[in-house]
Each structure stands twice: as structure tokens, then as C-alpha cells.
TrEMBL record:
Keywords: Oxidoreductase, Peroxidase
GO function terms (MF aspect): peroxidase activity
Organism name: Stomatobaculum longum
Protein's name in the database: Glutathione peroxidase
Keyword Oxidoreductase in annotation: yes
């Protein structure tokens, strides 16, 4: 299977076919409106504004699986993001990224780029401590650990990198830029 075989449910019905993005660099991210990482919307929008014309597409998939931090409707999520962060990239329908009802796209993404740790620093330690309380074997599983996990897909459709929410957004941006 290829990334281009997958689609994502769109707000209001329909599907966003990833095959429509052949030849583009994609940044696929599960988002939340009430999370400590929600300010990632600001650098994501800056990346989109700077690089969309160069071939960057951001696939924003709101998800409420992590501490209920995305409680609103698709419309409320969109309104929050456009008013608070002035986002212009499209958002997809709120969906699950882990478990029995996870999007098939996320099953594929996790098979291509598993969890490799949170890195270093206070945010990484905080996330590790939080997840250890829930599951002492969390690091051995490819599951999405929290909101704002990012997958980068190159122009050839390869899932080339996974960034955990604790990653510095400047690092994410630099990596994406290197593919454009």
C-alpha cells in the first residue's frame, strides 16, 4: 500500500484523497484545541503561508482521544483555529488515530514511522512521566502518544519522519523545508 491509497473524512461529508497530493510534501498532524501544544497552530500556519506555494500541504486531523482536549464540533474547532490562530490550511473531520476506530491512514503511518521517543528537555520528561502512569510499556508501541504528533511525507509519497509533540517546531519546519 502507498500513502496515496488513503483518504481522510472531510468536514461536512466526503473524503480528502491523499492521491490528490501526489508530488507534494505533506505534513499530517493530529490536533487539539485545548492542549498545551495547541500553540503549535501558530508555527504550522507560518509554515503553510511560507511554503504552500512551494508544494507543502498540511493535513490537519482534529482528535479528541487525548484527555478530551478537542471537545467541540468540527465547526467549533474550525472557528477556534481561524479566530485564534488565523489558520488557512483546511481541517478534516475530527477522527481517531489509535484503537479500534482509528483511521486506516494512521495504521499505515504508524507502521512506517514508529515511536522513537520524546527527545530531551522538560516537555519530554513531562510526557514520559504522564504516559508511564498510564502504561509502563508505552514506549514499545507505535501508537500516537498525544496531540500534535506530526508525520512528514516526501514528494514521492514516502513517510520519512515522525515528530512527537515535544519536538521543536523550528526543527519540524527546517526538515520540511529541506524537502521542498
Amino acid at each position: 500500500m502507498s500513502i496515496y491509497n488513503y483518504s481522510v473524512p472531510s468536514v461536512g461529508g466526503g473524503e480528502l484523497k491523499l492521491s490528490d497530493y501526489k508530488g507534494k510534501v505533506m505534513l499530517i498532524v493530529n490536533t487539539a484545541t485545548g492542549c498545551g501544544f495547541t500553540p503549535h497552530y501558530e508555527p504550522l500556519e507560518a509554515m503553510y503561508e511560507a511554503d504552500h506555494d512551494k508544494g507543502l500541504e498540511i493535513i490537519d486531523i482534529p482528535c479528541n482521544q487525548f484527555a478530551g482536549q478537542t471537545p467541540g464540533t468540527d465547526e467549533e474547532i474550525h472557528e477556534f483555529c481561524t479566530l485564534k490562530y488565523h489558520t488557512t490550511f483546511p481541517q478534516q473531520k475530527k477522527s481517531e488515530v489509535n484503537g479500534e476506530h482509528e483511521l486506516p491512514l494512521y495504521t499505515f503511518l504508524k507502521s512506517q514511522q514508529g515511536f522513537a521517543g520524546f527527545g530531551k528537555g522538560p516537555k519530554a520528561l513531562m510526557m514520559s512521566a504522564l504516559l508511564l502512569k498510564q502504561d509502563r510499556h508505552y514506549a514499545e508501541k507505535p501508537d500516537i502518544k498525544w496531540n500534535f504528533t506530526k508525520f512528514v511525507v516526501d514528494r514521492d509519497g514516502n513517510v520519512v519522519k515522525r515528530f512527537e509533540p515535544t519536538a521543536d517546531m523550528a526543527e519540524v519546519s527546517a526538515f520540511v523545508e529541506s524537502l521542498l
